[in-house]
Design a protein that fits this description.
Blueprint: H1 9-21, E1 27-31, H2 38-50, H3 62-68, E2 75-78, H4 84-96, H5 100-114, H6 132-143, H7 157-174, H8 183-194, E3 202-206, H9 214-225, E4 231-237, H10 245-248, E5 252-255, H11 261-272, H12 281-286, H13 293-311, H14 320-332, H15 336-346, H16 360-378, H17 383-406, H18 410-420
Parallel strand pairs: 1-4, 1-5, 2-3, 3-4
Helix pairs in contact: 2-3, 4-5, 4-7, 5-7, 6-7, 8-9, 13-14, 13-15, 13-16, 16-17, 17-18
Length: 425
Amino acid sequence: MFENLIAQEAVRAGLQDAVTEGSVPPVLLFSGPPASGKLTTALELARALSCTGSRAWNCPCPHCVRHRLLTHGDLLLLGKRSLPEEISVARDFLARSPGQTSAYFFLRSARKLLARFSPVLWAGEETKLGKAVPLIQSIEESLDLIQPDKLGPSLSDSEAKAADSVLSDCRALEALCPEQPGVFMIRNMEVWAQLAPTSARKTVIIENADLMQDSSRNAMLKILEEPPETVRFVLLTPRRASMMATILSRSRIYNFIPRDETTSRLVASRVFKSQEAVSSLQAFFESRMPFPPLEAKQAARGFIGCLLASRVEGGSSLGPLASSLAREAAASEAKPRQVLDAIIATTGGFGAKDKSMTGSFLRFIKAMLSVFSELLSESSGNPAILAKVEEWSRLAREAAIQYSSLNRNPELLAEVLADSFGVAS
């Protein structure tokens, strides 16, 4: 039990005691930074609560078998989280070292994403799934070809093709995942929670619970006021201070400590069988993304530098960062449209022409907003650049909303965004 939880000894001991003594509370809050093991622990807790055997990871009881595959009907997983980078790591692990360990890791990584599209959560709102349905079906069909007990010393052509298909489809599916659980999901979850479990306990896990909208939070709070006896709620957050005080008061809190470089390397070595130099697990995962955040940040700085050089007068009055970006852009003699066209080409039209690049548009927007924030923090004394950067920030946020909520073509959105920035063709 909790054998796979590394470097969180206090959490491990507390949960082991609670499970053994039968004193797991109705509501638990796992608080800690990204990649600190919160979801791993929550899923392991769900398995332990359902187990009718030894509770060991390799327990052969039917409930543990289904939990290891993340197909147990007594588990519900909600909340947004970026998963394609984990699936990419799992795909590499599976190809490098086929076996039960790598296969389970790959299957679980993909099903963590599929769980956000559970029919239980979307009951009555199936029409909203639209583009997601064929992707979900394709992923499930491909996963069926990966059998942990039947893998040979190397992947067969069909297994390798299935794994590649899962990764590609998951990247596309990720873009369709809602940013937060809608209130209809919370209400569907409440109905599900009232039904009898097939095991001893049902478990509801909500990732990034601090990001829920007010309507969803209020609906959730009503459930937590009188939680069903057979259900345990596990809320995960990297920002404990952002949680509602009334939810905190009803939760037993477990604090996950950050994993330093040494611990991150240990996890990469033990879990992923990777000897790669790892500064942090988050960086380890992000490096597997197509158009990773670091590359997106560099692209955003180049594009914004061109905007500053071409649209803002009086460079001598700019702050240090703005001046540096504008000088670099001027030295390259590149125009904003040229820079954007190069980014579009690199990302396959931000995923419009290359499905493996799905999600690159939002990473580019996020990177731009980060640079805009840095500019605003140094430019309060320059009204001209302050007004311009605030306008650009607003337009970028609106483009992100249109992409996420309306499924707009990202390449066309980028073109429209450039036009709204005043970039000449």
